[in-house]
Amino acid sequence: MRAVVLTGPSRLEAVELDPPECGPHEVLLAMSALGLGDQDVAAFRGRRPVGPVPWLLGRQGVGEIAAIGERVTRPYRLGQQVVVEPDFCCRGCRACAAWFSSACPERVSLGLDRPGLLAEFAAVPAHFTWPAPRAVPLEDLVCAEPLAEAVAAARRAAAQPRQRALLLGADTRGLFLCLVLRARGLEVTVREPITERLDLACSLGAQPWSDGDDEFDVLFDNSGKRGALAESLDGLLPGGTVVLLTGAAAPPDGEELFRRQLIVRGSHGYDHPTDFPATVDALVSGEFAPGKLARRRYSLQGANRAFEEAAVNVAKPWLSYDW
Ligand SMILES: [Zn+2]
């Protein structure tokens, strides 16, 4: 089969590989589209360790079922289109049993810890695939993973319609969160210094932050900057919720938490098996239409350029498998 492999930092090459075998609990997918995200870029650039080169990258994939493992219990049929959930938890530990699979110590990531989807065919565990009809545009489906993270963040914040949310930092992750919060009926204010990002957030229905804005129910810190939270915390209502989307933030001190009765919550990844199918369902129903954030399409011949693009541009590039 044809494939594109990483052969060194920022170097991709087209090669021929043997197709993978379909294990008893797996489905073999004929790949059709792949979204690129931050983790792909980090691996491409050599900033995030992966397996030995040549290595198959690729996490955020959509494909058609080409073979079904003999012990797969889902009622799949050949030719059916599915979206891949690319982080495989163990489904057996205490974290998984408590619906915290994002904290599963056995979790492995497609394209990082095990070979990814940048090939004509890929075998993935059937439990981590979700059906999606062909009527949904591929540029929407390739956004399922970052949207699932945003769905998880909104769930962990207990976000409710008509609440006021303040979002610090509108990089790609922040923009997907903005889209989900708006779709869920929240009023979203964005604090972001880069004009292009702020404009994109406003095109999704957010409003720009201005000095003195307050009475927020929930504050999402996606700034990646240590002091950013403290600068915006006065705008949060008593009893409000702070959600940390990166590990860089400095949470409020105990005196402030106590006096203002704030809730602080970390949000890392998404949890299996709920967030991903909820996201795919929202894409199928049209509740989320993220195509605006994934408008740059490349063929596999342009894979190098697509990865470079993903590193510098906030709008998400994606690949279609026309060889
Ligand atoms: Zn587990």
Query: What's the CATH first level of the largest domain?
Result: Alpha Beta
Percentage of residues in strands: 25-35%
| Ligands present | zinc ion
Rg over alpha carbons: 20 Å
Give the count of structural domains. Answer: 2
The helix-and-strand class reads alpha/beta
Find the CATH topology of the largest domain. Quinone Oxidoreductase, Chain A, domain 1
Q: What is the subunit organization of this protein?
A: single chain
Would you report the number of β strands?
A: 17
Helix content: 25-40%
* Helix run count: 10
**Tell me, what's the shape?**
globular
| CATH level-two architecture of the largest domain | Alpha-Beta Complex
InterPro entries: ADH-like_C (IPR013149), ADH-like_N (IPR013154), GroES-like_sf (IPR011032), NAD(P)-bd_dom_sf (IPR036291), Zn_alcohol_dh (IPR050129)
Domain Alcohol dehydrogenase-like C-terminal: 174-283
Domain Alcohol dehydrogenase-like N-terminal: 23-133
GO molecular function: oxidoreductase activity
Walkthrough of the structure:
Helix content is 26%, strand content 27%. The protein is α/β, with parallel strands linked by helices and 323 residues long. The protein has two domains: 2-142 and 294-320, Quinone Oxidoreductase, Chain A, domain 1 (Alpha-Beta Complex); 148-266, Rossmann fold, CATH 3.40.50. Strands 3, 4, 5, 8, 9, 16 and 17 form a seven-stranded mixed β-sheet that branches. Helix 1 (38-45) crosses helix 10 (303-312) and helix 4 (144-156) crosses helix 5. The model has no long low-confidence stretch (mean pLDDT 96).
